[in-house]
Design brief:
Strand order of the largest sheet of chain A: 2-3-4-7-6
Shape of chain A: elongated
Structural class of chain A: alpha+beta
Oligomer: heterodimer
Order of helices and strands of chain B: HHHHHHHHHHHHHHHHHHEEHHHH
Largest interface: A-B, 52 and 52 residues
Order of helices and strands of chain A: HEHHEEEHEEEEH
Shape of chain B: globular
Number of domains of chain B: 2
Number of strands of chain A: 8
Number of helices of chain B: 22
CATH topology of the largest domain in chain A: OB fold (Dihydrolipoamide Acetyltransferase, E2P)
Distance between the termini of chain A: 79 Å
Distance between the termini of chain B: 8 Å
Strand order of the largest sheet of chain B: 1-2
Largest sheet of chain A: 5 strands, mixed, barrel
Radius of gyration of chain A: 25 Å
């Protein structure tokens, strides 16, 4: 917790000191108000989902903040911090990143993206334990019983019809 | 006077419906195998429940019908079976998805399944990025089954050849047989589709590894899913960002090729398959597609240029053309976020995409919309009428066009084409009216309604979990009716009315 607070404060201090405009934004705001944020330094956070898509000395990661996932272009040096990505079996690392937002990135064919300059894992990912519901197993057994009855009935009627 | 259907009619419908449900239920074995492959155990239970429920219902209907195998279906039976089979399959296919816990309600799961079966691609799944491989595969397998045709699946495995089989086939909006025998036609459709699936998956998987940067197992999984949803013009993707996730121009090109390939009439696939490739360029549908695609792409790009969204023309054309091709082939893959249509794109650009969606793909393909054959026929009919005014009254003006073979433009054909086109336009506007009732602007309501009825799947953001249940049901009906081209749905309506009011 202290580490998280420390990082956030450090980032804010750095940008205030540099006199640069930096704003925390959600994916909804970035997509709906893309013109407003275009070229701005933004703070964005969420869960890393899918896979880390390596492209030479950089990689794409997709960060989901609960509404949408936004593609983030990350230098190789920052990638080492990411250990888990979100999938069925894993809750991905929750990251907080700072970077430049592009409404239409000139480097990447006009896509909407963020070029990360700094990234911190605020909550490491972990395996998700599957929930094997006993109610579902009960339903399955009942259905199996019904199916066996129906099949036996069908065989009985077919034999009778042949006779 | 309306005649009440006889008990024998109900038994025939139950008999064929039971067989189709058995075939559909059997397809749930595939996600169970996928679960085993990826070592996901909870989905095995979900899909086994769906599988057993389908078998129970199918065998129950066969027991109730209790008919000999030689019983033939009439036109009315074929139409009612085809339309009701899609509804029943929606309810059964939604069971494992609902049990996955990724849907807010059973209605949302039904919406997702109908969206898949009808090859639409509108989504209501929640937290898609954490969905199991099995459930995700099932979402994409739906378009593959529904695109080729649920009835076509049953015809291959369970239904005897005969006139009854042909009537079922026609009920699923496929009025053109590729081969003289309808069972052979169904087998050909599946043989070609499976061949394309293997080739398409390999191509996309290779691109996934080398261009996108995915791991090998995920590349194959994504490749298979993207191909099934692309070739069957559905537009589902395994990740919530759709095609944006991949951030690869090569992947975009491959998906565009897949979409265009899926757009073509299955008869044209047969010609290509048998070496008659010239047919592809001679056909009225191909020519109409190239003409309308150029027009709508220009409209969209002009609209995007007006909006000054993209810094350079290459980016603008890349984004614009991709959405237009996706809309025109009625696929629904997107390289922009849904809210960007509203927030970023100019009304002219949105209109361009809307026109592409409304026009749609080819007859006897997995694509929806008014269809290129009808657009081509209407264009020829207008040209013929203008020609008639310009020539002397004694002159006989005739128009020929090529669709699989040389055909003369007849008034009867033009009339039926105009009626179905009018039907589509009416359905587009009825959905838009309901959207407007819930407070959405006309253009975006019309866009969403057309996307549902033409089985496209692009969205302006209206389709979301929080939208009213009435709107969800409206879109389900539009997707269903649009995929079946209204006739069998209207016959089902007539059948229900005759059951209630008939004498």
């Amino acid at each position: 917790m202290k580490q998280r607070l420390g990082f956030c404060l450090a980032v804010v201090m750095v940008f205030l000191a540099l006199g640069r405009w930096c704003e925390a934004a959600s994916s909804q705001e970035l997509i709906a108000e893309a013109k407003l944020f275009d070229g701005a330094h933004v703070l964005y956070g969420g869960e890393v989902i899918g896979e880390v898509l390596a492209r030479g000395d950089h990689a794409w990661i997709n960060v989901y903040d609960g509404n949408n996932a936004i593609s983030v272009w990350v230098p190789g040096a920052l990638l080492e911090k990411i250990k888990h990505t979100g999938s069925y079996k894993y809750a991905g690392d929750r990251v907080r990143l700072h970077g430049i937002f592009h409404r239409s990135c000139p480097e990447h064919g006009g896509t909407l993206d963020i070029h990360a300059q700094d990234l911190l894992v605020v909550e490491p990912g972990q395996p998700v334990i599957e929930d094997l519901s006993s109610e579902k197993i009960l339903i399955l057994v009942v259905l199996l019983g019904v199916l066996i009855c129906l099949l036996m009935g069908r065989i009985f009627w077919m034999r009778r019809a042949h006779k | 006077m309306i005649l009440r259907p006889q008990i024998q009619d109900v038994r025939i419908i139950a008999h064929y419906l039971g067989k189709i449900i058995l075939a559909y239920g059997a397809t749930m074995v595939v996600p169970i195998l996928i679960s085993l492959l990826f070592r996901e155990f909870a989905p095995i239970i979900d899909f086994t429940i769906g599988f057993l429920l389908s078998l129970c219902f199918g065998f129950f209907l066969l027991a109730v019908a209790h008919l000999p195998e030689t019983t033939e279906a009439s036109w009315m039976h074929g139409m009612v079976v085809a339309s009701s089979a899609w509804l029943v399959c929606m309810f059964l296919g939604a069971v494992p998805l609902f049990l996955s816990g990724h849907f807010a309600s059973y209605l949302d799961a039904c919406f997702e399944v109908m969206s898949g079966l009808s090859t639409t691609g509108l989504v209501l799944v929640q937290d898609l990025d954490h969905l199991s491989h099995a459930a995700n595969f099932w979402r994409h397998f739906g378009p593959f089954v529904g695109g080729q045709g649920i009835i076509v699946v049953a015809l291959v495995f369970l239904v005897r050849s005969g006139s009854g089989a042909f009537r079922l086939y026609v009920g699923e909006a496929r009025d053109e047989k590729i081969m003289p025998n309808v069972i052979e036609t169904a087998k050909f459709i599946w043989k070609v589709s499976l061949f394309y699936l293997v080739v398409g998956t390999l191509m996309l998987a290779a691109c996934g590894v080398w261009s996108v940067g995915m791991s090998v197992p995920e590349s194959f999984f994504h490749g298979a899913c993207i191909f099934m949803a692309g070739f069957d013009t559905a537009g589902f993707a395994p990740q919530s960002q759709n095609i944006i996730y991949y951030q690869s121009f090569a992947f975009e090109i491959l998906t565009m090729i897949t979409m265009v390939w899926g757009f073509f009439n299955f008869n044209l696939h047969y010609f290509v398959w048998t070496g008659r490739r010239a047919e592809l360029w001679k056909d009225i549908e191909t020519r109409a597609f190239l003409a309308t695609l150029t027009i709508v792409a220009v409209i969209t790009c002009v609209g995007l240029a007006q909006g000054h969204i993209y810094g350079d023309s290459v980016s603008m054309i890349r984004r614009g053309v991709y959405q237009v091709v996706s809309a025109h082939t009625t696929t629904g893959y997107a390289t922009i976020y849904s809210p960007q249509f509203v927030a970023e794109w100019s009304p002219l650009a949105v209109l361009g995409v809307w026109i592409a969606m409304a026009l749609g793909g080819s007859i006897c393909s997995t694509a929806g919309g008014i269809k290129m054959m009808r657009v081509g026929v209407i264009a020829r009919a207008i040209r013929e009428d203008i020609k008639r005014f310009l020539t002397s009254e004694a002159a006989v003006v005739t128009t020929k066009f090529h669709h699989l073979r040389d055909l003369f433009l007849e008034d009867k054909l033009v009339r039926s084409v105009c009626l179905i086109t009018l039907g589509y336009i009416m359905v587009y506007f009825i959905g838009a009216l309901i959207g407007c009732f819930y407070g959405h602007p006309l253009l975006y309501s019309l866009f969403e309604s057309t996307s549902a009825a033409a089985n496209v799947g692009l969205s302006t953001g209206i389709t979301q979990v929080s939208m009213p249940a009435v709107l969800k049901v409206t879109y389900i009906i539009q997707m269903w009716a649009g995929r079946l081209e209204f006739v069998s749905v209207l016959v089902l309506g007539g059948f229900i009315v005759s059951c209630i009011r008939g004498k």
